[in-house]
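Example S7 (structure tokens).
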């Protein structure tokens, strides 16, 4: 029989895989607390560690709901654990009604989620191993043309608008692959601008940015961005422009000196007389 401690960990595996981290910790405190509670109970399965785990699961309800995890299975595992400690049955309805993540929570919603309509569960079935962010990006790209993909992705983005943004912000490789594909259409100009800023080379504020470096960066980005997106189109969006304007690269790109230099370079090119095969 599988150890219930590890069953709980496996049930929450998708949540811990997909929630964003920063400096080795989860961004959202409820997720970090849940991770710590699971680890404490896995290492020391005692009654004193069990109750904080139950509480942490209730506090992280909105994230469990977001990823459509098999919540019924989680409650069954913990109910059995409570019984082994001689505790009364856990009143999940009452416990979850006080969860800050979902004041209008309906218990049956998590018990009867439809896995076939869930993007992450659908993708997870296509991978024999736990999915990293880079592998998730590749799975999205590999399956983007399959029937039902767009609906699954749109449904997921309604629940988690920053789903693709988290992928492109944390990995330059993921940014390049997604920005160069149809998936870019699911990203806003502001999200793209933030990711671009995040992946720019570090800037020395004391040194001016050379035009050649700006040329190289903008050219590379324009080759990466696709389906009608470019640095010029992003700068036409006021919100995206405000983000990009914080970088010396794009300050230089929009400067009068840079613009005049580009114009002068074009004017210095001798016009070529069209040839029709003989002199007029």
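Recovered sequence:
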């Amino acid at each position: 029989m599988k150890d219930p401690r590890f069953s709980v960990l496996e049930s929450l595996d998708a949540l811990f895989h997909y929630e964003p981290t920063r400096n080795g910790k989860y961004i959202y405190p409820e997720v970090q607390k849940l991770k710590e509670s699971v680890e404490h109970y896995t290492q020391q399965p005692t009654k004193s560690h069990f109750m904080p785990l139950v509480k942490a699961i209730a506090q992280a309800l909105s994230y469990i709901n977001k990823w459509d995890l098999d919540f019924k299975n989680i409650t069954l595992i913990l109910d059995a654990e409570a019984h082994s400690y001689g505790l009364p049955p856990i009143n999940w309805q009452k416990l979850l009604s006080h969860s800050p993540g979902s004041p209008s929570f309906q218990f049956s919603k998590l018990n009867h989620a439809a896995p076939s309509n869930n993007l992450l569960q659908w993708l997870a079935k296509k991978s024999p191993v736990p999915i990293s962010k880079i592998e998730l990006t590749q799975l999205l790209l590999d399956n983007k043309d399959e029937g039902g993909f767009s609906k699954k992705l749109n449904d997921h983005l309604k629940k988690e608008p920053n789903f693709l943004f988290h992928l492109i912000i944390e990995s330059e490789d993921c940014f390049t692959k997604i920005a160069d594909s149809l998936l870019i259409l699911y990203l806003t100009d502001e999200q793209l601008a933030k990711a671009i800023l995040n992946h720019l080379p570090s800037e020395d504020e004391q040194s001016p940015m050379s035009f050649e470096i700006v040329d190289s960066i903008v050219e590379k980005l324009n080759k990466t961005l696709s389906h009608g997106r470019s640095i010029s189109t992003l700068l036409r969006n006021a919100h995206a422009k405000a983000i990009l304007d914080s970088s010396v690269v794009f300050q230089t790109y929009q400067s009068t000196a840079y613009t005049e230099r580009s114009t002068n370079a074009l004017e210095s090119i001798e016009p070529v007389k069209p040839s029709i095969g003989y002199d007029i």
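Notes on this example. Residues 4-109 form one domain.
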